[in-house]
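Hey team,

Filing this mostly as a record. A colleague (T.K.) asked me to run one chain through the structure pipeline before their review meeting, and I want the input and output archived in the tracker in case anyone asks later how it was produced. No errors, nothing strange. Just documentation.

Input sequence:
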Amino acid sequence: MQQAKISFDEKQIEILNKYQEYGFKDKSSMVRSAIEEFIKADEKKKLIESAELYAEVFKEDSDVKELTNSAIEEWPL
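Output structure:
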């Protein structure tokens, strides 16, 4: 695993020092977990934005609606 030098403010250090109270084995695992949660939230945000874009295209494009509806009629076989 690679290492990185990072800086924290006083409040963040207070939280990091309580890593055991939050169920982490060390400060590094706590930071890794926070970064993983950020990644998941970012991916979810991108999926929502994509879904909204597809919904907008579907709503405004009658050809896409027709194509989708024709596929639904034949599914499942």
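Quick notes for T.K.: The chain has one domain: 10-73. DSSP finds three helices and no strands in the chain.
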